[in-house]
Amino acid sequence: MKYIKSILLLLILALVSCNNSNKEEASSEITSEETNSGTIHLSKAQFENAKMEVGQLTEKPFAETVQTSGVIDVPPQSRAVISAFSGGYIKNTPLLVGNKVSKGQRLVTLENPEFITMQQNYLETAEQLSYLKSEYDRQKIMFDEKITSQRSYLKAESEYKSNLARYNSLKKNLEILNMNPASVEAGNIVSQVNIYSPIDGNVTQVFVNTGTYVSPADKIMEIMNTDHIHLELKVFEKDLLQLKKEQDILFTVPEASKETFNGEVHLVGTSIDPNSRIAMVHGHIDEKDENNFTAGMFVEAQIITGTLNQMALPENAVVEMEGKNYVLLIENEDAEGFELRPIEVKTIANYKGFTAIEKSDQFKADSNFLTKGAFVLLNEEGSGNDH
């Protein structure tokens, strides 16, 4: 009998144990559902230690802009393509791409036997001119005293002036080739000439090597001065009437940096390309930023044409996760801490540290949001949900 009682007691204990286990599992499931309900609990200590901040939607001015793109360029007077005024062989070219040059600095040396012939013709013409000048003067005196005929005087005058024109022409050719006519007249004849830089700047391209023959139509090198770089932007015809001088420009160089730089509209094009229906806008870059760029960089730009007030939050209050934007709405606050709920929102624009919220009237005027620390908090929650 005692044996049967013992078996019954064990069965009762087993049933009680199973029942308690089921209750614990049910309790665990309820707790889990409450945890996953979307509410985030934040204690006052966590809030203060992380130096979080709370704020409300406020009305802020947002820029109305024209979207455009273009390149960074230099004015025409800051770019020089070097070529020869006369054909010749490159005797020496000491410069490489990137070298800095000063105005008047030697760039290349050209050699050509024809240079000798040019100097010889000039020298012969100069010497002949001296004789023709004296003969002209003599005939003029004799004609004035009626000692010689008008025909002899006019012949002497014609020969002298014809030779003078030839002399001046040859002299100009030598000067263009950077030869000194006075040195040639002194008997110093050379077979080489130097080409000098017309501007300060840097060598951006070299098209020749030592020994290359170049004609007057050939490019030898290109020099660019980047002290006065600017923006050349393409604007569609439909946006052109919104633009005017001195409007602000915000631009980025997407291939090099995420930073936004400042500029200003300087000139708005007055002609439109008939095929693309695009006009050009010339913009100046802030002086403090000019040294950050080089000509040829692609830019994306916004030209600010006006402002429009929008309800906005500080940009740190809006967190992007998996292609969606969220804010943390404070649903309850007490002495212990905060209850926050992530709300998906759509944004309109970012400007000067604020983000405009679409359909902001879905929130009450006195609604509070976590404006600093939301990124860390939401990402921690996201990581926890993944696990």
From TrEMBL:
Question: Where would one find the signal peptide in this protein?
Answer: 1-23
Domain CusB-like beta-barrel: start-end pairs: 231-304
Show the GO MF annotations: transmembrane transporter activity
Q: What keywords were assigned to this record?
A: Signal, Transport
Please provide, in alphabetical order, the Gene Ontology terms of the cellular component aspect for this entry: cell envelope; membrane
* Pfam families tied to this protein: Beta-barrel_RND_2
Any Gene Ontology biological process: plasma membrane copper ion transport
The record's comment on protein family reads: Belongs to the membrane fusion protein (MFP) (TC 8.A.1) family.
Q: What is this protein called?
A: Efflux RND transporter periplasmic adaptor subunit
Q: What is the originating organism of this protein?
A: Aequorivita antarctica
Organismal lineage: Bacteria, Pseudomonadati, Bacteroidota, Flavobacteriia, Flavobacteriales
